[in-house]
Amino acid sequence: MEEKRNNQVNINTNPNPKVLLIAYYWPPAGGPGVQRWFHFVRHLPLFGITPVVYVPKNPQYPIVDETLTEDLPKEVVIIKRSISEPYKWISWLFKKKTQQLSQGLIQENKPSLIERFMRFVRGNFFIPDARVSWVAPSVAFLSQYINEHGIETIISTGPPHSMHLIANELVKIHTRLKWIADFRDPWTTIGYHNDLYMTHWAQKKHLKLERTVLQSAHTILTTSYTTKALFSKKTATPIEVITNGFEPFENSSLTSPEENKFSLVHIGSLLSKRNPKILWEAIGELVTENQLFAAQLSIDFVGLVSDEVKATITAHGLASYCNFHGYISHEEARKHQYTAHLLLLIEIDSEAHKGIIPGKIFEYLQSLRPILAIGPKDWDVARLLPENNFNALGTYHDKAMVKSFIETRFNAGKGISAEIDPTLSKYERKNLTEALSKIIKNLKRS
Q1: CB neighbours of 205 closer than 8 A, spacing ≥ 6?
Q2: The domain 2-245+429-442 belongs to what CATH superfamily?
Q3: What is the mean pLDDT of each run of 10 residues along the chain (446 residues)?
Q4: Domain 252-411 is in which class?
Protein backbone atom coordinates (compact mmCIF):
# COMPACT_ATOMS: atom_id res chain seq x y z
CA MET A 1 0.00 0.00 0.00
CA GLU A 2 1.22 3.47 -0.87
CA GLU A 3 -0.27 6.41 1.04
CA LYS A 4 0.72 9.95 0.17
CA ARG A 5 -0.04 12.83 2.50
CA ASN A 6 0.52 16.18 0.84
CA ASN A 7 3.03 18.12 2.97
CA GLN A 8 2.86 15.29 5.53
CA VAL A 9 -0.49 16.40 6.96
CA ASN A 10 -2.05 13.72 9.17
CA ILE A 11 -5.71 13.46 8.30
CA ASN A 12 -6.56 12.43 11.87
CA THR A 13 -5.96 16.04 12.97
CA ASN A 14 -8.17 17.58 10.25
CA PRO A 15 -11.58 18.65 11.60
CA ASN A 16 -13.31 18.70 8.20
CA PRO A 17 -15.54 15.77 7.18
CA LYS A 18 -13.64 13.11 5.24
CA VAL A 19 -14.82 11.74 1.91
CA LEU A 20 -13.26 8.65 0.36
CA LEU A 21 -13.22 8.66 -3.47
CA ILE A 22 -12.90 5.24 -5.14
CA ALA A 23 -11.70 5.74 -8.71
CA TYR A 24 -9.74 4.02 -11.44
CA TYR A 25 -8.66 6.95 -13.61
CA TRP A 26 -6.19 9.32 -11.99
CA PRO A 27 -3.10 11.18 -13.22
CA PRO A 28 -1.11 10.24 -15.22
CA ALA A 29 -4.17 8.83 -16.99
CA GLY A 30 -5.11 10.88 -20.02
CA GLY A 31 -8.52 11.57 -21.50
CA PRO A 32 -11.70 13.13 -20.12
CA GLY A 33 -12.38 10.46 -17.48
CA VAL A 34 -9.66 11.74 -15.18
CA GLN A 35 -10.47 15.45 -15.41
CA ARG A 36 -13.80 15.41 -13.58
CA TRP A 37 -12.67 14.02 -10.23
CA PHE A 38 -9.13 15.36 -10.23
CA HIS A 39 -10.54 18.87 -10.22
CA PHE A 40 -13.38 18.07 -7.79
CA VAL A 41 -10.76 16.76 -5.37
CA ARG A 42 -8.63 19.85 -5.95
CA HIS A 43 -11.50 22.20 -5.03
CA LEU A 44 -13.32 20.27 -2.27
CA PRO A 45 -11.11 21.54 0.60
CA LEU A 46 -12.26 25.08 -0.26
CA PHE A 47 -15.73 24.00 0.89
CA GLY A 48 -14.69 22.32 4.13
CA ILE A 49 -14.36 18.73 2.90
CA THR A 50 -11.22 16.58 3.09
CA PRO A 51 -10.85 14.13 0.17
CA VAL A 52 -9.10 10.77 0.49
CA VAL A 53 -8.48 9.26 -2.96
CA TYR A 54 -8.17 5.50 -3.53
CA VAL A 55 -6.72 4.55 -6.94
CA PRO A 56 -4.68 1.72 -8.52
CA LYS A 57 -0.92 1.71 -8.03
CA ASN A 58 -0.09 -0.02 -11.34
CA PRO A 59 -2.99 0.63 -13.73
CA GLN A 60 -3.07 -0.10 -17.45
CA TYR A 61 -4.19 3.25 -18.82
CA PRO A 62 -4.88 3.29 -22.58
CA ILE A 63 -3.61 6.88 -22.83
CA VAL A 64 -1.28 8.83 -20.56
CA ASP A 65 -0.93 12.58 -20.00
CA GLU A 66 2.06 13.57 -17.88
CA THR A 67 1.14 17.27 -17.90
CA LEU A 68 -1.71 17.14 -15.38
CA THR A 69 0.55 18.29 -12.59
CA GLU A 70 -1.40 20.94 -10.67
CA ASP A 71 -0.63 20.69 -6.98
CA LEU A 72 -3.37 19.24 -4.83
CA PRO A 73 -4.21 20.93 -1.53
CA LYS A 74 -2.20 19.71 1.46
CA GLU A 75 -5.29 18.13 3.01
CA VAL A 76 -5.72 15.61 0.18
CA VAL A 77 -4.53 12.05 0.82
CA ILE A 78 -3.80 9.66 -2.05
CA ILE A 79 -3.88 5.91 -1.39
CA LYS A 80 -2.59 3.54 -4.07
CA ARG A 81 -3.00 -0.23 -4.09
CA SER A 82 -1.85 -2.76 -6.67
CA ILE A 83 -4.34 -4.05 -9.23
CA SER A 84 -4.22 -7.12 -11.46
CA GLU A 85 -4.83 -5.98 -15.04
CA PRO A 86 -6.04 -8.58 -17.59
CA TYR A 87 -5.34 -6.16 -20.44
CA LYS A 88 -1.67 -6.23 -19.46
CA TRP A 89 -1.52 -10.01 -19.83
CA ILE A 90 -3.38 -10.12 -23.13
CA SER A 91 -1.35 -7.25 -24.60
CA TRP A 92 1.74 -9.45 -24.56
CA LEU A 93 0.10 -11.46 -27.35
CA PHE A 94 -2.12 -8.91 -29.08
CA LYS A 95 -0.67 -5.50 -28.23
CA LYS A 96 -2.38 -3.43 -30.96
CA LYS A 97 -5.78 -5.12 -30.67
CA THR A 98 -5.75 -4.83 -26.87
CA GLN A 99 -4.92 -1.13 -27.03
CA GLN A 100 -7.70 -0.51 -29.55
CA LEU A 101 -10.26 -2.35 -27.41
CA SER A 102 -9.30 -0.50 -24.23
CA GLN A 103 -9.47 2.83 -26.08
CA GLY A 104 -12.86 2.04 -27.59
CA LEU A 105 -11.59 1.88 -31.18
CA ILE A 106 -13.80 -1.05 -32.16
CA GLN A 107 -13.79 -1.79 -35.87
CA GLU A 108 -17.33 -2.07 -37.24
CA ASN A 109 -16.67 -3.65 -40.62
CA LYS A 110 -15.82 -7.35 -40.52
CA PRO A 111 -13.94 -7.63 -37.20
CA SER A 112 -11.25 -10.28 -37.32
CA LEU A 113 -11.50 -13.59 -35.46
CA ILE A 114 -9.09 -12.29 -32.82
CA GLU A 115 -11.18 -9.11 -32.35
CA ARG A 116 -14.38 -11.12 -32.00
CA PHE A 117 -12.73 -13.46 -29.50
CA MET A 118 -11.35 -10.60 -27.38
CA ARG A 119 -14.73 -8.85 -27.32
CA PHE A 120 -16.47 -12.08 -26.30
CA VAL A 121 -14.00 -12.65 -23.46
CA ARG A 122 -14.35 -9.04 -22.30
CA GLY A 123 -18.14 -9.19 -22.41
CA ASN A 124 -18.68 -12.56 -20.73
CA PHE A 125 -15.74 -13.27 -18.43
CA PHE A 126 -15.12 -9.79 -16.96
CA ILE A 127 -18.40 -8.51 -15.52
CA PRO A 128 -18.94 -5.64 -15.16
CA ASP A 129 -15.45 -4.91 -16.54
CA ALA A 130 -11.84 -6.02 -16.59
CA ARG A 131 -11.13 -4.43 -13.17
CA VAL A 132 -13.52 -6.67 -11.24
CA SER A 133 -10.65 -8.61 -9.61
CA TRP A 134 -9.77 -5.42 -7.68
CA VAL A 135 -13.09 -5.50 -5.78
CA ALA A 136 -12.38 -8.09 -3.07
CA PRO A 137 -8.88 -6.90 -2.03
CA SER A 138 -10.05 -3.28 -2.08
CA VAL A 139 -13.00 -4.03 0.18
CA ALA A 140 -10.74 -5.80 2.67
CA PHE A 141 -8.25 -2.94 2.77
CA LEU A 142 -10.70 -0.05 2.75
CA SER A 143 -12.92 -1.58 5.42
CA GLN A 144 -10.05 -1.36 7.90
CA TYR A 145 -9.01 2.08 6.62
CA ILE A 146 -12.53 3.44 7.14
CA ASN A 147 -12.53 2.29 10.76
CA GLU A 148 -9.10 3.73 11.50
CA HIS A 149 -9.58 7.12 9.82
CA GLY A 150 -13.15 8.07 10.55
CA ILE A 151 -14.43 8.08 6.97
CA GLU A 152 -18.06 9.21 6.89
CA THR A 153 -18.86 9.25 3.17
CA ILE A 154 -17.63 7.33 0.13
CA ILE A 155 -17.96 8.23 -3.54
CA SER A 156 -17.47 5.72 -6.35
CA THR A 157 -17.08 6.90 -9.92
CA GLY A 158 -17.50 4.76 -13.00
CA PRO A 159 -16.86 3.49 -15.51
CA PRO A 160 -15.25 1.16 -14.77
CA HIS A 161 -18.33 0.17 -12.77
CA SER A 162 -16.34 -2.22 -10.60
CA MET A 163 -15.64 0.87 -8.51
CA HIS A 164 -19.34 0.89 -7.56
CA LEU A 165 -19.14 -2.75 -6.51
CA ILE A 166 -16.37 -1.88 -4.03
CA ALA A 167 -18.55 0.84 -2.52
CA ASN A 168 -21.60 -1.43 -2.41
CA GLU A 169 -19.75 -4.00 -0.31
CA LEU A 170 -18.39 -1.34 2.03
CA VAL A 171 -21.81 0.08 2.90
CA LYS A 172 -22.97 -3.43 3.79
CA ILE A 173 -20.16 -3.70 6.33
CA HIS A 174 -20.29 -0.15 7.73
CA THR A 175 -23.88 0.66 8.65
CA ARG A 176 -23.23 4.37 9.17
CA LEU A 177 -21.35 4.90 5.93
CA LYS A 178 -23.00 7.10 3.29
CA TRP A 179 -22.49 6.45 -0.41
CA ILE A 180 -22.66 8.60 -3.57
CA ALA A 181 -22.43 6.69 -6.87
CA ASP A 182 -21.19 8.89 -9.72
CA PHE A 183 -21.94 7.76 -13.29
CA ARG A 184 -19.83 9.57 -15.87
CA ASP A 185 -21.51 7.31 -18.46
CA PRO A 186 -24.54 5.00 -18.32
CA TRP A 187 -24.07 1.31 -17.54
CA THR A 188 -26.21 -1.25 -19.39
CA THR A 189 -27.38 1.22 -22.04
CA ILE A 190 -23.89 2.35 -23.06
CA GLY A 191 -23.43 1.95 -26.80
CA TYR A 192 -20.48 -0.45 -26.84
CA HIS A 193 -22.33 -3.16 -24.85
CA ASN A 194 -23.87 -4.33 -28.11
CA ASP A 195 -20.39 -4.91 -29.56
CA LEU A 196 -19.23 -7.32 -26.84
CA TYR A 197 -21.11 -10.47 -27.94
CA MET A 198 -22.62 -10.89 -24.49
CA THR A 199 -24.61 -14.01 -23.73
CA HIS A 200 -28.09 -13.73 -22.22
CA TRP A 201 -26.57 -14.75 -18.88
CA ALA A 202 -23.99 -11.94 -19.04
CA GLN A 203 -26.63 -9.36 -19.96
CA LYS A 204 -28.79 -10.42 -17.01
CA LYS A 205 -25.82 -10.20 -14.65
CA HIS A 206 -25.05 -6.65 -15.79
CA LEU A 207 -28.67 -5.65 -15.24
CA LYS A 208 -28.69 -7.23 -11.79
CA LEU A 209 -25.49 -5.46 -10.74
CA GLU A 210 -26.71 -2.14 -12.12
CA ARG A 211 -30.00 -2.49 -10.25
CA THR A 212 -28.17 -3.33 -7.02
CA VAL A 213 -25.96 -0.25 -7.25
CA LEU A 214 -28.79 2.10 -8.21
CA GLN A 215 -30.93 0.90 -5.32
CA SER A 216 -28.19 0.63 -2.68
CA ALA A 217 -26.48 4.01 -3.14
CA HIS A 218 -27.82 6.87 -1.05
CA THR A 219 -27.48 9.43 -3.85
CA ILE A 220 -26.65 9.02 -7.51
CA LEU A 221 -24.82 11.58 -9.65
CA THR A 222 -25.09 11.71 -13.43
CA THR A 223 -23.48 13.98 -15.98
CA SER A 224 -26.59 14.32 -18.15
CA TYR A 225 -30.34 14.79 -17.86
CA THR A 226 -31.20 11.83 -20.08
CA THR A 227 -29.17 9.48 -17.88
CA LYS A 228 -30.99 10.85 -14.83
CA ALA A 229 -34.35 10.19 -16.48
CA LEU A 230 -33.25 6.68 -17.45
CA PHE A 231 -32.08 5.82 -13.94
CA SER A 232 -35.21 7.34 -12.39
CA LYS A 233 -37.21 4.53 -13.97
CA LYS A 234 -35.00 1.97 -12.22
CA THR A 235 -34.67 3.34 -8.69
CA ALA A 236 -36.22 5.65 -6.10
CA THR A 237 -32.75 6.75 -4.95
CA PRO A 238 -32.27 10.55 -5.20
CA ILE A 239 -30.48 11.52 -8.42
CA GLU A 240 -28.62 14.77 -9.05
CA VAL A 241 -27.11 16.05 -12.29
CA ILE A 242 -23.65 17.56 -11.95
CA THR A 243 -22.27 18.02 -15.44
CA ASN A 244 -18.63 18.12 -16.39
CA GLY A 245 -17.08 21.56 -16.62
CA PHE A 246 -13.98 23.59 -17.34
CA GLU A 247 -11.03 25.25 -15.67
CA PRO A 248 -10.15 28.81 -16.74
CA PHE A 249 -7.46 28.60 -19.42
CA GLU A 250 -4.61 31.06 -18.86
CA ASN A 251 -2.97 30.55 -22.27
CA SER A 252 -5.99 31.50 -24.38
CA SER A 253 -4.57 34.87 -25.35
CA LEU A 254 -1.42 33.24 -26.74
CA THR A 255 -3.16 31.36 -29.56
CA SER A 256 -5.43 32.48 -32.38
CA PRO A 257 -6.48 31.27 -35.85
CA GLU A 258 -3.97 31.54 -38.64
CA GLU A 259 -4.62 34.25 -41.20
CA ASN A 260 -5.59 33.17 -44.71
CA LYS A 261 -6.84 29.84 -43.34
CA PHE A 262 -10.24 28.44 -42.48
CA SER A 263 -9.53 26.04 -39.67
CA LEU A 264 -11.93 23.31 -38.52
CA VAL A 265 -10.81 21.56 -35.32
CA HIS A 266 -12.10 18.41 -33.63
CA ILE A 267 -10.83 17.53 -30.16
CA GLY A 268 -11.20 13.97 -28.87
CA SER A 269 -11.62 10.45 -30.22
CA LEU A 270 -13.51 9.71 -33.42
CA LEU A 271 -14.58 6.08 -33.11
CA SER A 272 -15.90 4.05 -36.01
CA LYS A 273 -19.54 4.87 -35.19
CA ARG A 274 -18.77 8.55 -34.58
CA ASN A 275 -18.59 9.22 -38.28
CA PRO A 276 -21.14 11.70 -39.74
CA LYS A 277 -20.71 11.09 -43.45
CA ILE A 278 -22.87 14.11 -44.26
CA LEU A 279 -20.21 16.34 -42.71
CA TRP A 280 -17.45 15.03 -44.96
CA GLU A 281 -19.82 15.15 -47.95
CA ALA A 282 -20.73 18.77 -47.23
CA ILE A 283 -17.11 19.84 -46.83
CA GLY A 284 -16.14 17.91 -49.98
CA GLU A 285 -18.84 19.71 -51.98
CA LEU A 286 -17.70 23.12 -50.69
CA VAL A 287 -14.13 22.29 -51.74
CA THR A 288 -15.35 21.48 -55.24
CA GLU A 289 -17.66 24.49 -55.55
CA ASN A 290 -15.53 27.22 -53.93
CA GLN A 291 -11.88 27.64 -54.90
CA LEU A 292 -11.18 30.12 -52.10
CA PHE A 293 -12.67 27.73 -49.55
CA ALA A 294 -10.48 24.93 -50.93
CA ALA A 295 -7.38 27.12 -50.77
CA GLN A 296 -7.90 28.07 -47.14
CA LEU A 297 -9.39 24.88 -45.66
CA SER A 298 -7.54 23.09 -42.87
CA ILE A 299 -9.03 20.29 -40.74
CA ASP A 300 -7.24 19.35 -37.53
CA PHE A 301 -8.01 16.17 -35.57
CA VAL A 302 -6.64 16.16 -32.04
CA GLY A 303 -7.11 12.68 -30.61
CA LEU A 304 -7.51 9.13 -31.83
CA VAL A 305 -9.25 8.64 -35.18
CA SER A 306 -10.36 5.21 -36.36
CA ASP A 307 -9.28 3.82 -39.72
CA GLU A 308 -12.90 3.74 -40.88
CA VAL A 309 -13.36 7.46 -40.23
CA LYS A 310 -10.12 8.20 -42.08
CA ALA A 311 -11.29 6.08 -45.01
CA THR A 312 -14.55 8.04 -45.24
CA ILE A 313 -12.68 11.35 -45.16
CA THR A 314 -10.37 10.13 -47.93
CA ALA A 315 -13.31 8.94 -50.02
CA HIS A 316 -14.64 12.50 -50.09
CA GLY A 317 -11.33 13.94 -51.28
CA LEU A 318 -10.37 15.60 -47.99
CA ALA A 319 -7.23 13.70 -46.98
CA SER A 320 -4.87 16.45 -48.18
CA TYR A 321 -6.66 19.03 -46.02
CA CYS A 322 -6.35 17.01 -42.81
CA ASN A 323 -3.81 17.08 -40.01
CA PHE A 324 -3.98 14.11 -37.63
CA HIS A 325 -2.22 15.05 -34.41
CA GLY A 326 -3.10 11.91 -32.45
CA TYR A 327 -3.37 12.03 -28.69
CA ILE A 328 -1.58 15.01 -27.15
CA SER A 329 -1.62 16.54 -23.67
CA HIS A 330 -4.78 18.20 -22.41
CA GLU A 331 -3.06 21.60 -22.28
CA GLU A 332 -1.88 21.32 -25.87
CA ALA A 333 -5.34 20.18 -26.97
CA ARG A 334 -6.88 23.28 -25.41
CA LYS A 335 -4.46 25.47 -27.34
CA HIS A 336 -5.71 23.90 -30.57
CA GLN A 337 -9.25 25.02 -29.70
CA TYR A 338 -8.16 28.61 -29.96
CA THR A 339 -6.66 28.11 -33.43
CA ALA A 340 -10.11 27.17 -34.77
CA HIS A 341 -12.50 29.21 -36.86
CA LEU A 342 -15.01 26.43 -36.20
CA LEU A 343 -14.98 23.68 -33.55
CA LEU A 344 -16.53 20.29 -34.37
CA LEU A 345 -18.49 18.35 -31.75
CA ILE A 346 -19.53 14.88 -32.89
CA GLU A 347 -21.42 12.08 -31.12
CA ILE A 348 -22.65 8.65 -32.18
CA ASP A 349 -26.06 8.68 -33.86
CA SER A 350 -28.03 6.41 -31.53
CA GLU A 351 -30.70 6.60 -28.86
CA ALA A 352 -28.18 5.29 -26.33
CA HIS A 353 -25.97 8.35 -26.84
CA LYS A 354 -28.46 11.19 -26.61
CA GLY A 355 -27.64 11.47 -22.90
CA ILE A 356 -23.89 11.75 -23.49
CA ILE A 357 -22.63 15.30 -22.96
CA PRO A 358 -18.95 15.31 -24.01
CA GLY A 359 -16.78 17.02 -21.44
CA LYS A 360 -15.08 19.06 -24.13
CA ILE A 361 -18.22 21.07 -24.87
CA PHE A 362 -17.66 23.14 -21.73
CA GLU A 363 -14.14 24.03 -22.82
CA TYR A 364 -15.45 24.67 -26.33
CA LEU A 365 -18.00 27.13 -24.94
CA GLN A 366 -15.38 28.84 -22.80
CA SER A 367 -13.11 29.31 -25.84
CA LEU A 368 -15.76 31.57 -27.45
CA ARG A 369 -15.28 29.89 -30.82
CA PRO A 370 -18.19 28.91 -33.10
CA ILE A 371 -19.34 25.29 -32.66
CA LEU A 372 -20.91 22.86 -35.11
CA ALA A 373 -22.42 19.93 -33.19
CA ILE A 374 -23.66 16.77 -34.93
CA GLY A 375 -25.26 13.98 -32.94
CA PRO A 376 -28.43 12.02 -32.18
CA LYS A 377 -31.92 13.45 -32.23
CA ASP A 378 -32.94 15.07 -28.90
CA TRP A 379 -29.30 15.19 -27.79
CA ASP A 380 -28.80 16.66 -24.29
CA VAL A 381 -26.20 19.02 -25.77
CA ALA A 382 -29.13 21.15 -26.97
CA ARG A 383 -29.63 22.26 -23.35
CA LEU A 384 -26.14 23.78 -23.30
CA LEU A 385 -25.48 25.04 -26.80
CA PRO A 386 -27.16 28.33 -27.69
CA GLU A 387 -28.15 28.17 -31.36
CA ASN A 388 -27.31 31.45 -33.07
CA ASN A 389 -25.04 32.75 -35.80
CA PHE A 390 -22.05 31.22 -34.01
CA ASN A 391 -23.39 27.74 -33.17
CA ALA A 392 -25.43 25.05 -34.89
CA LEU A 393 -26.76 21.67 -33.75
CA GLY A 394 -27.85 19.03 -36.24
CA THR A 395 -28.34 15.31 -36.75
CA TYR A 396 -26.71 12.86 -39.13
CA HIS A 397 -29.46 13.71 -41.64
CA ASP A 398 -29.06 17.50 -41.75
CA LYS A 399 -26.58 17.80 -44.60
CA ALA A 400 -28.06 20.98 -46.06
CA MET A 401 -27.96 22.78 -42.73
CA VAL A 402 -24.42 21.60 -42.02
CA LYS A 403 -23.18 22.75 -45.42
CA SER A 404 -24.92 26.11 -45.13
CA PHE A 405 -23.57 26.75 -41.64
CA ILE A 406 -19.97 25.94 -42.60
CA GLU A 407 -20.26 28.25 -45.60
CA THR A 408 -21.72 31.00 -43.40
CA ARG A 409 -18.87 30.73 -40.94
CA PHE A 410 -16.33 30.79 -43.79
CA ASN A 411 -17.88 33.95 -45.23
CA ALA A 412 -17.80 35.56 -41.78
CA GLY A 413 -14.03 35.68 -42.08
CA LYS A 414 -12.32 36.79 -38.90
CA GLY A 415 -15.53 37.10 -36.90
CA ILE A 416 -14.75 34.03 -34.80
CA SER A 417 -15.52 35.17 -31.26
CA ALA A 418 -18.91 34.00 -30.08
CA GLU A 419 -20.99 35.99 -27.62
CA ILE A 420 -20.19 35.50 -23.94
CA ASP A 421 -22.90 33.46 -22.25
CA PRO A 422 -23.50 34.98 -18.79
CA THR A 423 -24.64 31.59 -17.46
CA LEU A 424 -21.39 29.86 -18.46
CA SER A 425 -19.75 30.45 -15.08
CA LYS A 426 -21.95 27.80 -13.46
CA TYR A 427 -19.95 25.20 -15.41
CA GLU A 428 -16.64 26.34 -13.98
CA ARG A 429 -15.40 23.39 -11.94
CA LYS A 430 -15.00 25.39 -8.75
CA ASN A 431 -18.70 26.28 -8.87
CA LEU A 432 -19.67 22.70 -9.73
CA THR A 433 -17.62 21.54 -6.75
CA GLU A 434 -19.57 23.87 -4.49
CA ALA A 435 -22.78 22.17 -5.65
CA LEU A 436 -21.16 18.79 -5.00
CA SER A 437 -20.09 19.85 -1.49
CA LYS A 438 -23.70 20.71 -0.62
CA ILE A 439 -24.83 17.25 -1.72
CA ILE A 440 -22.12 15.65 0.41
CA LYS A 441 -22.98 17.69 3.51
CA ASN A 442 -26.72 17.06 3.18
CA LEU A 443 -26.37 13.35 2.41
CA LYS A 444 -28.40 10.99 4.58
CA ARG A 445 -28.39 7.22 4.78
CA SER A 446 -31.96 6.06 4.25
Answers
A1: 127
A2: Glycogen Phosphorylase B; (3.40.50.2000)
A3: 47 70 94 90 96 94 78 92 75 48 51 78 87 96 95 96 98 96 92 81 95 98 95 97 88 70 94 93 98 97 93 97 92 89 95 91 91 96 84 96 96 72 87 97 86
A4: alpha beta
